[in-house]
Structures are given as structure tokens and as C-alpha cells.
Amino acid sequence: MSIMKRNLKIVIAKTLIVIALIVIVCQICYFKGYKSEWDKIKCSTLKQHSPKFIIMILTANSSKYASRRRNIRMEYLSYPFKHRSEFKHYFYVQRSLSMLQENAIYNDFLWYKGVDRYDKLSTKVWSGFKTLYDNYDFEYVIKTDDDTAINLDILYNSVFVKYNATKPFYGGRFSGNNDLIARGPLHAHSKWNRMCPPGTNFSRPINGRAQGSLYVLDKESIQNAINLDIPPSNCEIEDLYTGSLMQMIKVKQYKVSGSVGAKWKTKCNQTEYYYNKQCSKYAFLHRVHNERDWNIVRQMYFNQTH
User: Fold this and answer.
1) What does the DSSP assignment read for 184-246?
2) Which of 125-139, 256-270, 287-301 has the weakest average pLDDT?
3) Bridging pattern class, strands 148-150 and 87-94
4) More confidently predicted of 47 and 126
5) Nearest to 275 by CA among 306, 258, 298
6) pTM greater than the 0.85 cutoff
């Protein structure tokens, strides 16, 4: 009996030592700034994997967009290619009960603590950039939306191979001079009605901006833009705000081939020629909304249909 008690005490002592070591490690992580601000995960594993690319996918905190997230996970995030291990993705979303339940299954949410509204999009996007910058080792962040399909192989070659890992880097599909701001609001009821205030540094990026469906920033550009410490509230149209920041820190623009809005549907779903010669060369396609759209994407990018 005494031997059993002694063995039990040894086991308890060893357990307490392990717990103490975990607490010490987490305290060290905390003071080094490695503590996660979006979840209660073990800080000792936070920087274990250092991907070259982090994909930050904006999504709404609603279960009605779950099918979009499911298609993204099952399609371009799952398709194998040579450099797949260099990519890590997170859906950037506000907490809710349904989102917590979904994250319990997939563990791929990055939590946003602010107000999740379209007129606060610049705040949300740059809060995400700062969260990633503070907590992860990476070279590039790909900001995209949950209605954008990406061919990661083409994107990798467009960004890392074609431009030979150029830094600082601001890549995307650029719209030229910002005629949107020059014309003013398009419609009184539209999302564009909230323009950047006239006379501010955000009123018109002279060299245009990368469209918000997908753009790529390297870590140095994100750091330099954060150091400007200019409130996003001055311009809540996120791609204009980002374009203005990149212009202010003098980051050169690099074209990443991609299609615009719904135009790809009329260009790319008619004949086999268009599948092979036009849209299959794009790094990304925007406004992929339903199963029909995804079937076209599968055929174009991956030569598959469901």
C-alpha cells in the first residue's frame, strides 16, 4: 500500500511539474508578444508553422455563407500542387455562436473583434493585417473574399516566381487611375456612396489601386503601412485605403492576372476554347456565388466536374 501511495505521489509531482513548465512557457510567449488575440490557443504552438503565404479570406458571421466557405475548403484549398505547404488560410470573421460551432470542426477562423459592417471594411481588413503581423511569421498576405476562387499554382508563379520574391510588394489587378473617386458616388443607395473625404490623402490614389477581390502584400509593406498610423476611418473603402497607403510608402505595383466581377461568367462558360485559352490563365475569379459557378471553376482550373 505504501508503495502505491509513493508511486501516486510521484505521478502527481510529475504532473504538477509539467503543468508548471507549460505555464512558464506561455508566460514567456505572452511577454514576447506571441499571445493570440483571437483565440485561447496554446501560445507555444502559435508560430510553429511559418508559411510563405497566409490567405486571409473575408467572410460574414452568418451561417448562410457556410456553403461558400465549404466550397473554398473543398476546392482550391484542397487541390494539391507543388507548393501547397507554403500556404496557410484563415477566414476572418466576427465571433458568433454559429461561427464558434463551425470553427470547432475546421479550426480555420481568425476572430475579428470590431464592428463587422461594410462601411467599416478598411478597419476590419487592416485589423486583420496587424493581427497577422503581430502573431505570425510569413512573407506575404493574400487578402481575398469568400466569393473569389483562386488557382494557387498560377498565383504562386505570378507572385513569387515571376517577380522573383520582390519586396516591398503590392500585387493585384489594378484599375488604373481612380476614376471612381473622380466621378463621385455612382448611386445614392450603393456601397460606393461612402467616399473618402475630399481633400484627404485618401481622396484619389494617383496610380490606382488593386481591386479588393484579391491583392497581395508582403510583410514589409504591411509593417510600413501600420507605422503610418493613419486611421482607416478616413476612408472605409478598403481597396482605396490600401492603395493610398501603398502609394504613401512608395510601394511599386505588380500585376497579378485576374478577372473582373461577373464578366468571367460570360467570357468563360460558352465554349471549350474559352475554358482553355482565356479564363483558365487567370490567378483568380471573382463573384463565384453558386454551385454552377464552382462547376465552371472546377473545369477551368482543375479539369474536374461534380
Assistant:
1) --S-TTSGGGSPPPTTSTTS--TT--EEEEEEEEEHHHHHHHHHH---GGG---HHHHHHHHH
2) 256-270
3) unpaired
4) 126
5) 298
6) no
